[in-house]
Amino acid sequence: MLHETDDLFSSAWPDGPAAPKLVGAAPARALAYPELRYMGSKRRLLPWIHAVLDELDFESALDPFCGTGCVAYLMKAMGRRVTASDFLLFPSIIAAATVGNSSAMLDSGTLGRLLSHAPDDDFIARTFDGVFFTAADRAFLDRVSAGLRALDDPDRRAVGYAALFRSCLKRQPRGVFTVSGDLARYDDGRRDLRLSLEEHFHEQVEAFNAVVFSNGRDCGAMRADALAIDPSDYDLVYLDPPYVPRSDDNCYVKRYHFLEGLASYWKDVELMPQTKVKKIAKRYTPFSYRRTALAAFEALFERFARSTIVLSYSSNGYPDLATLEGLLSRYKSRVTVHERPHRYHFGTHGSVKRASVTEYLIVGR
Questions:
Q1: What is the Cα gyration radius of the chain?
Q2: Which Pfam families match (predicted)?
Q3: Is 309 helix (H, G, I), strand (E, B) or coil?
Q4: Residue 125's closest CA among 266, 3, 26, 14?
Q5: What is the pLDDT of residues 92-122, one digit of tens each?
Q6: Which of 175, 268, 302, 352 might form a disulfide with 37, Cβ 3.0–4.6 angstroms?
Q7: Separation CA 239–CA 331 (nearest Å)
Q8: Rounded to an integer, what distance in angstroms lies between the CA atom of residue 283 and that of residue 281?
Q9: CATH architecture of 1-103+219-242+293-365
Q10: What DSSP designation does 45 have?
Q11: Own/partner pairs for 132-136, CB < 8 Å, 24+ apart?
Q12: Per DSSP, which regions of 256-354 are E strands?
């Protein structure tokens, strides 16, 4: 097994004080992808991921744990036929807006109709009073949600939802929906906390319109369980599952339940009204538990054994690197590990420490 330490930046930490100096730059289009405050996002690692992917021979790719969609979008910008998927609804909608969508944008006329649409319910205003956002923000969400649901074009609707999700992440303190209450107590002067949701939405519509493009290939997005996807149509599979951390948990629903509910206007989720932040019931995934994670990884490797496998992983996860290499070697004759230091940002308040880890790309061919 081959281990390679990749030095693509002048600083050991790409988000540290030293300005990064790219050795092999990713497509400029991919680097312009909107950065979402999302646990485990690989947005800052795109130049390194590109350098690894660019050495591999593939025309079609699957990203079944797409999250923010930035890696799937990178592969689209590389000219590949890409399918992005996630087991949560709201990330799959973001992928539909940016990966599956090749031409649809929210023009000024459509945007005007969205903003003037009459709400058909006040569910957000009622349910999240005193929990998230201001009264005006919640009324805006009820109104624009109704307008988005009324849109006939699914691609334009996806762009609108992507803009709305990022607006909520920017407006919400710390970018997660585990904290609630008066926004003023979190106000540290940042612009994101001072803009209204409607003001954010105008900006984010422009941001997501700007990344819509066609690469001439038939790209797509869907919501699916990675272990249920037909594996037969992909030269390469990029895997970034939610690994079990050494502390806390990897529950995306706990942190982003509001966005998952917003994606369907809480029609297809189980609301837990007794909880302080009005959580929704989380879906089971074997990647969240030590007792099931190992078998889940092996099932992934077996399912996609015919494709080149690129596994994104981190040194603070379970199982460890040696175990994953051993598992992948059962299905691949050549396993190469690329590694580099990285810092994750899980919040912006003073008590949050930067999580310094070694990031891995484990390639099986």
A1: 20
A2: MethyltransfD12
A3: strand
A4: 266
A5: 999 999 999 999 999 999 999 999 999 999 9
A6: 175
A7: 15
A8: 7
A9: 3-Layer(aba) Sandwich (3.40)
A10: G
A11: 132/172, 132/177, 132/180, 132/258, 132/277, 133/171, 133/172, 133/183, 133/197, 134/183, 134/196, 136/196, 136/197, 136/198
A12: 308-314, 317-318, 335-344
DSSP character at residue 240: -
Closest CA to 109 of 147, 143, 166, 158: 147
Q: pLDDT, tens digit, for every residue of 195-245?
A: 999 999 999 999 999 999 999 999 999 999 999 999 999 999 999 999 887
| d(C-alpha 71, C-alpha 316), whole Å | 21
CA distance 79 to 217: 7
Tell me the mean pLDDT in the region 307-323: 95
Q: How many helices (H) and strands (E) does the chain have?
A: 13, 10
Strand spans (E) along the chain: 2-5, 60-63, 81-86, 220-223, 236-239, 244-245, 308-314, 317-318, 335-344, 355-364
- Tokens matching residue 248: 């806390």
Residues 252-305 pLDDT 10s: 999 999 999 999 999 989 999 999 999 999 999 999 999 999 999 999 999 999
Q: Tell me what pLDDT residue 357 has.
A: 85
Beta strands in 65-148 (DSSP E): 81-86
Distances (CA, A) of 92 to 66, 84, 89, 358: 8, 7, 5, 28
Alpha carbon distance 279, 320 (integer Å): 31
Question: Which amino acid is present at 128?
Answer: F
- Residue 24 to residue 21: CA distance in whole angstroms: 9
Q: How far is CA 153 from CA 185, 206, 240, 264, in A?
A: 40, 18, 30, 16
Question: Beta strands 236-239 and 335-344: pairing type?
Answer: unpaired
Alpha-carbon gap, residue 63 to 67, rounded angstroms: 9
Q: What is the DSSP letter of 160?
A: H
Residues 6+ apart with CB under 8 A from 307: 62, 231, 234, 235, 236, 237
CATH 3.40.50.150 maps onto the chain at 1-103+219-242+293-365
Q: Residue 123 region, left (φ>0) first, then alpha (ψ -120 to 50), else beta?
A: alpha
